[in-house]
């Protein structure tokens, strides 16, 4: 079953009010390429301004806290993100798993909170270079899915992003065969975990997606979109990736 592709940008800790000007051309490209869904996840402080500037564009967050409210200084709840206008939240990005020591259980709780608040959750998984070299990539990702995927959401509210850690920000990507193998394994695992709902979960590829490789990567079986870091910061780079997604649809 071919799922509608989602091309999502993760701005990480980049951007500014001035940089939101990029959204104008990105929103126009989203409209012109209506066969794909497009989203941008800017830093928390820019979410409301991004929604105000381009209400037609899906705006998401890069994290949320698992709790509804309380004594968690510096954290943001899913309900706060919804109030700001976010309709999806990335959770469990490898940078947060590494820098903030987030565990699978915490990622699962965050995804559950995001979905309960009415957002879609993009749950990130991916192996390190050492794990791939040791032949453990698929096993590591299956384990992350086991621990991080909420069992009570619907397939539509859940998105998985496969982001090999060694491909993020490096200009290196797995071979098309390796991407196909991993995405097939993720699909099988999702079906085992979620039954029929597993077939509805979009599986994004992330890690050095650029204008010149987007169409090829997005054409691989069970690649239902892309999660784009650096190349999502400018319309000049992100629009051709949106077009690549449409061409692969
Ligand atoms: O981490 C990523 C998206 O979440 C990928 O980042 P790059 O596209 O910059 O490699």
From TrEMBL:
Carries keyword Nucleus?
no
Q: Which GO terms describe its cellular component?
A: cytosol
Q: Which UniProt keywords apply?
A: Cytoplasm, Gluconeogenesis, Glycolysis, Isomerase
Which leading EC class covers this enzyme?
Answer: isomerase
* PROSITE patterns assigned to the protein according to its UniProt record, in alphabetical order: TIM_1, TIM_2
Instruction: Quote the catalytic activity from the record.
Output: L-erythrulose 1-phosphate = D-erythrulose 4-phosphate; D-glyceraldehyde 3-phosphate = dihydroxyacetone phosphate
Binding of substrate, residues: 10-12, 169, 208, 229-230
A Pfam cross-reference name = TIM
Primary localisation category: cytoplasm
- Any idea of its EC number? 5.3.1.1
- Which InterPro entries does the record cross-reference, listed alphabetically? Aldolase_TIM (IPR013785), TIM_sf (IPR035990), TrioseP_Isoase_bac/euk (IPR022896), Triosephosphate_isomerase (IPR000652), Triosephosphate_isomerase_AS (IPR020861)
> Which residues does the Swiss-Prot or TrEMBL record annotate as the active site?
93 (electrophile), 163 (proton acceptor)
A single Gene Ontology MF term assigned here is:
triose-phosphate isomerase activity
A biological process from GO:
glycolytic process
Q: Where in the cell is it found?
A: Cytoplasm
Pathway assignment: Carbohydrate metabolism; erythritol degradation; Carbohydrate degradation; glycolysis; D-glyceraldehyde 3-phosphate from glycerone phosphate: step 1/1; Carbohydrate biosynthesis; gluconeogenesis
Tell me, how does this one assemble? Answer: Homodimer.
Q: Which family does it belong to?
A: Belongs to the triosephosphate isomerase family.
- Per its UniProt record, what NCBIfam families does this chain match? tim
Give a short account of what the protein does.
Answer: Involved in the gluconeogenesis. Catalyzes stereospecifically the conversion of dihydroxyacetone phosphate (DHAP) to D-glyceraldehyde-3-phosphate (G3P).
Protein name as catalogued: Triosephosphate isomerase
Q: Which organism is it from?
A: Sphingomonas montanisoli
């Amino acid at each position: 079953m071919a799922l509608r592709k989602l091309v999502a940008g993760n701005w990480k800790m980049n951007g500014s009010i001035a940089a939101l000007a990029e959204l104008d051309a990105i929103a126009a490209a989203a409209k012109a390429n209506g066969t794909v869904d497009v989203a941008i996840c800017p830093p928390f402080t820019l979410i409301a301004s991004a929604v105000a500037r381009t209400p037609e564009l899906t705006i998401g967050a890069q994290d949320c806290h698992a709790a509804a409210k309380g004594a968690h200084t510096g954290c943001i709840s899913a309900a706060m993100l919804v109030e700001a206008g976010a309709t999806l939240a990335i959770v469990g990005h490898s940078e947060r798993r590494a820098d903030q020591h987030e565990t699978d259980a915490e990622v699962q709780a965050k995804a559950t909170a995001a979905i309960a608040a009415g957002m879609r959750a993009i749950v990130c998984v991916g192996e390190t270079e050492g794990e791939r070299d040791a032949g453990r990539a698929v096993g590591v990702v299956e384990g992350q899915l086991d621990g991080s995927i909420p069992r009570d959401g619907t397939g539509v509210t859940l998105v998985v992003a496969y982001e090999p850690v060694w491909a993020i920000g490096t200009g290196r990507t797995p071979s098309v065969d390796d991407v196909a193998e991993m995405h097939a394994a993720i699909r099988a695992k999702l079906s085992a975990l979620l039954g029929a709902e597993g077939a509805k979960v979009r599986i994004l590829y992330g890690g050095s997606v650029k204008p010149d490789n987007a169409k090829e990567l997005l054409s691989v079986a069970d690649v239902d979109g892309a999660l784009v870091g650096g190349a999502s910061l400018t319309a000049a780079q992100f629009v051709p990736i949106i077009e690549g997604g449409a061409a692969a649809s």
